[in-house]
Amino acid sequence: MIELTDLTKRYGDKTAVDHLTVTVRSGTVTGFLGPNGSGKSTTLRMILGLNAPTSGTVTIDGRRFIDRPRGLRHVGALLDAQDIHGGRSAVAHLKSLAVSNRIPLRRVGEVLDEVGLAEAGRKRIGGYSLGMKQRLGIAGALLGDPPVLLFDEPLNGLDPEGVRWVREMFQRLAKEGRTVFVSSHLMSEMEHTAERLVVIGRGALIADETLADFSRRGSKAAVLVRAPEAAALAAILTAEGAEVEDAATAAGGLTVLGLTAARIGELAWRNDIMLAELATQNASLEKAFMELTADAVEYAAGEAR
Ligand SMILES: Nc1ncnc2c1ncn2[C@@H]1O[C@H](COP(=O)(O)OP(=O)(O)OP(=O)(O)O)[C@@H](O)[C@H]1O
């Protein structure tokens, strides 16, 4: 379990992390989401004792990371897959990590197998693709077989097969009872990866809940209706109290809020209006994320320069 209590980090006038209080539980994959520059990396670095908090505390299973003599055996982390010595091979890199953390050397072969780098293990890291570096970073995090794992944007640079593989691995690690905390600035990456979400904006907590609860915060469920006589139908639905928006992109499409699909179908039938399509739209996680973090986006497109 990772516990952040009133955790704050300031750089001069800039508050990178703002009184963050969060508990990251074991046995589940927790997504750590926020727009670019919202303080995710700074938080992960404070968890690992690489940055000192301005105030507040962070503990892992009750102790500060730097007070743990077992290091990589307790917490495995991938912070920046590119930040690695390109002249060495993956085997040499992992062996040096193993030796300095008193991890048996047989783990090197095991983790390289696990991440699919067994063949490339003796090649220079400098020649690796970003996806291979991500895999190597994940191997390093797994080396000490730790109960707590932190990953900063681990899906960056992975192809769709790689993304699926990482997702399945995170879920397996969580099922084994470990704490898996994964940052991303993209909801689409977390949607099929995490079970819980911690969402921050400008360093402050916006949400800490299950994915299902988070999606309910988003826009109300809407119903998409397509009908040749869209204008007539829109008038009927509005008279029934619905909020109707024209979906400008789809000819004849209406987005209806405030009525169920069943009720819309019934009203159309009673008024002899033919429907071409009637579909309930699930509240989109992406939309909920965009709405909740809109005020916290630091560099939006189209902003005054
Ligand atoms: N060493 C530093 N000195 C000054 N400001 C910093 C430093 N490190 C981070 N910041 C600032 O703190 C804020 C949070 O940065 P951080 O890298 O933690 O965000 P992030 O959520 O990880 O972003 P991204 O998704 O872009 O990686 C940013 O505004 C950043 O410019």
From TrEMBL:
The keyword ATP-binding applies. InterPro entries: AAA+_ATPase, ABC_transporter-like_ATP-bd, ABC_transporter-like_CS, P-loop_NTPase. It holds the Pfam family ABC_tran. GO terms for molecular function: ATP binding; ATP hydrolysis activity. It comes from the Bacteria. Residues 2-227 form the ABC transporter domain. Keywords: ATP-binding, Nucleotide-binding, Transport. Belongs to the ABC transporter superfamily. This is ABC transporter related. The lineage of its organism: Bacteria, Bacillati, Actinomycetota, Actinomycetes, Catenulisporales.
